[in-house]
Protein 1
Amino acid sequence: MVQSHFNEGELVGVLTTQPLGRVLDYKAPQGGCFAGAFVEVPLGPRKILGVVWGAGAGDYDYAKVRSVMRVLDVAPMRSEMQTFLTRAADYTLTPLDQMLRLATRAPGMGDAPGTRKVYRLGSSEPTRMTEARQAVLDVLREYGGLAFTLKELAEMAGVGTTVVKGMVKLGAVSEEDAPRDTPYPKLDPNYGGKELTADQAAGAAVLAEAVASGTYGTTLLKGVTGSGKTEVYLEAVAACLRAGRQALVLLPEIALTGEFLDRIEARFGQRPAEWHSGVTQTERRRCWRMVGLGDADVVVGARSALFLPYRDLGLIVVDEEHDTSYKQEDGVLYNARDMAVLRAAGNGAQVVLASATPSLESWANVEAGKYRRLELKSRFGPAVMPKMSAIDMRSEDLPSGHWVSPSLRAAMQLRIERGEQSLVFLNRRGYAPVTLCRACGHQIACDDCDARMVEHRFLKRLMCHQCGATKPMPTVCPHCAVEDKLSAVGPGVERMGEEVQALFPDARVVVLSSDLYGSARAMKAHIADIAAGGADIVIGTQLVAKGHNFPKLTLVGVIDADLGLQGSDLRAAERTFQLMRQVAGRAGRAEAPGEALLQTYQPEHAVIRAIVAGDEEAFWSAEAAERKAAGVPPYGRMAGIVLSGGDVQQVFDLGTAMARQDAALRRIGAQVFGPAPAPIARIRGRHRVRLLVKADKAAPLQQALAEWAAQFKLRGDLRMAIDIDPQSFY
Ligand code: ADP
Ligand code: ZN
């Protein structure tokens, strides 16, 4: 049996959040401690966070071993969580300390409970308004009545704490004693269920039974947008609540949580816990602790919510499972969809993957018999899938610098006459993707990246979409110094806004793009207003493809259906197919039938034809056959290796050495390709070189990669990132 309690002075192994590469021995503190306890331990002169991972190794002079300083007053890490972190670390080739950091992202998690001061909007305006005071009020209003700690509020407003304290004296901010970390209200599974259609009820019954069984299983819940997938998986959540277990719902986009929380409240009578980067620190801490104690029934959140310390997790829903934002592309490279399955498998929990356009990976897992498949065939109520057709741009009469074809324009005109909404879709933020000097032909590029800068007219700046660097829009060409010759080339959503407004001067035109909002809350309010009919024409990026409801919308015009088909990305066709279908799915959600028009220069392209024909099965089987033949995911395994550094020669030399010393990979039949400059060969001033490793589906890839990579010492500023199952190639 694994030892679960350690008496004072016994050796324990503590995993810390420091990059030490191993578990360290400490002596159990006074009163002893349990395995899994969160502790503070001394490391050199510092005090650091750790978890009692098991018994100590005892390979160090006992007399020199230091003691655990303090056991934190939080629920200990459960053994299934330890197993999950270990497996996730092995799968993603990530050191365990980094996994632990992911699992402990709660500020002040060890602080004693009790009360503390919180700050909210007060009852009176300050008599004398200053910029700093205004900033504090803005933050408080922005978060609609939420409470902040002093430090948090001051930081978010960018002011000193004395400003806040001063406003308390004036009554503009109220100061209260609030109990820390209160439990979340109980959700009632019987509160507000809808009457389901036969199709929906059958699906819900299967999921409810699976959840009630208390065993692991994964179900792909497929159905067109509006078919009621959410209603169906909420029944799985209800079954989970009835079983007394916790449920997690992952959403791909923070902007969607607001709408979703309302739906949960309508169904279960209370709001659930929320976990994502837009939540205040105070609320994060509460969520982390309450999840551990079982005092949060349902968590709605972003992918990192998978690493919360659930007391008894019975269900994980991954909504829009195909969405690329589930792949974490920074730090620990993991795919939340895969990690959800890993987490559930060790927990006797069910996974529901919901999508109108599932990923080829999930599709293949269904085919292989690993996942169950449920399908909702039709939209709920009178709505039907929109009629889709291609507009052949080769035969449209369109002056250069314009992008709305006469055919699309006529369709929009019709919607305006009928009092319905149109959506013009272009997946490009900003005003124009290229700024060109008409005198010398120079294109303005980022100083640190191998990328052109995108004009954002709204912000009056040029922005690099790789590193986020911005600079003011110049009036003189930085290359030839000629004045007033810089011109915008190509369309972004802001520019589409101008064009559409000029075509329909009396229409209410709005541009919906994440960078035009100060906060998720502001964006949410605007989206609600649009959905209620506050606009005639919406111009939008990918943002609108993700699950917002616009009942009055009956036309979707896709400006450039070919955009995603360019480039050499393995998943280009799949992504385009998914995105176009998702966008088209925005039309005709309520009573009025919808129409989707795709502007394309290659209407005969197989992907465009499959989209227009709505022939999903044909698309997926053709795509699957191609990937099978090429031996690429999901029918083969891949890992992307990105090497980077300041000196291009050094980076390449490392790449060449890696390609040459590939015995560990050859032993499992894997092949290395490269080194080659990465598609974006420089980011933030660092040169980037890629290698690609391909192996058979059954090959033990991670082990071989670990052995291979360990041969190379990274000198100086050289870095190596290994991405298992890469989603994008940049
Ligand atoms: P999906 O998740 O597949 O896009 P939703 O679950 O959001 O679909 O359903 C689309 C709309 O139809 C929602 O407004 C939802 O409340 C409504 N709806 C779906 N099924 C039912 C039902 N059985 N009874 C009443 N309304 C329903
Ligand atoms: Zn840049």
Note: The CA atoms of residues 276 and 302 lie 5 Å apart.
Protein 2
Amino acid sequence: MIDRDKLYIDGAWVPSTGTSTIDVINSTTEEVMGKIPEGTAEDVDKAVAAAKKAFPAWAKTSVEERGKFIQRITEGLQARMGDIAQVVAQEVGMPLNLSTMIQAGLPVMTFGSIQQILSTFEFEETIGNSLVVKEPVGVVGAITPWNYPLHQIALKVAPALAAGNTVVLKPSEVAPLNAFILADVIDEVGLPAGVFNLVTGVGPVVGEAIAKHPDVDMVSFTGSTRAGKRVAELGAQSVKRIALELGGKSPNIILDDADLSKAVPAGVGGAFLNSGQTCTALTRMIVPRSKLAEVEQLAVQAAETYTPGDPFEATTRLGPLVSAAQQERVRNYINKGVEEGAKLLTGGPEQPEGLDKGYFVRPTVFSDVRNDMTIAQEEIFGPVLSIIPVDSEEEAIEVANDTIYGLAGAVWAGEKDKAQEVARQIRTGMVDVNGGGFNPMAPFGGFKQSGRGREAGKYGLEEFLQTKSMQL
Ligand code: NDP
């Protein structure tokens, strides 16, 4: 049982002004694994005041000095990788080996990469008689989701601090314990008081208090499109900068000359990572109708290797979903797919055999999906893949783009050039070409209702800077 009873404000662990707590649930055992304070709007006021007070001195520190702090945080996180991997595997349910690599590994990589980028980043340039300088935005409110909890936090906190901003973080109430580990590390490295603050609680209270706070200069939000719209609405009242990383319904176009034996299993993997609770999940596999039977057979074969089980067992490839609510939501979508006439190839809404406890959902594949069906339009956030047959390359592109979202996508073709030509026509912020691997330094973010702004690498640092021109 991990009992965290304080918030981190102005360089100290302090009690919340409220008295309520939130239980953190282990997604495999369904038991309470921890407790955190349910913060209040007053806690946000205190944290924002501390961040505002700390900003001028922190903004003035040299790039080298900030780089040293970032390096120490990187080292601190690296030393705690085991704890982080374990805690996220329990909170979110990702199998431990993947949790170690992704949930604990990516935050370390993000902090490390930001330190490197800082050392070469051009903060100043001359244009004619103007000196153009990049300056921090001010107090940054960071609001994050549960699916890759510390990764999403690192993508905001590392560049925001490196750029000279101060931060108030509100992590997801569903998977918050990892954020306390980061706060412990930050406390240990002796970051000046008020530069980083942690206020836990629920979105409609703590999240909204941050979004509408007049002294918060920027909100960086990752989560659902629904909550992102609300944050943008509230933030607009004080014209603060708003960065949004939202949902997706990402297409995976497989052209008729692609190597199906590679493309289909890779596509299934791209849909099922983290039990499908991935914003970039490739949930719509768009394939030539003439190849449908072969694709179906390969997809079922691949899906059935994702045996659901305990994330702490070495053989498990698919953990539970994060919560009872999420499990219920995904099962409803599966039922909806059947009702609307999609062909259920494998999986289904029932609890997987032999697993009485835990928020598990069977790896599920639908075929004969039409793009206007609910399962092809709405983000499911579970291990559910829709195969959509089409009759031409033009139709494949049209179907790929026929969505409110524009986060990620993939294209497979016999030739890489051909795949790239199609990739250019997909209206999403990211596209994998013939299985191109995840690049943690590449700009990450969406078109359309998938968001605004970019995270990671050099673009992720720029997100937290504003531009001033001085005419000389
Ligand atoms: P939510 O939008 O429910 O929550 C995200 C965060 O916003 C949480 O901290 C939540 O608080 C908070 N929040 C909720 N309502 C409000 C509000 N009215 N005002 C301010 N803050 C609020 O998303 P989930 O946590 O369920 O995460 C899943 C979603 O995140 C998916 O849609 C997914 O696609 C998206 N996502 C996008 C990514 C991207 O980079 N584009 C990456 C990862 C996920 P609380 O703790 O109470 O839930």
Note: The radius of gyration is 22 Å.
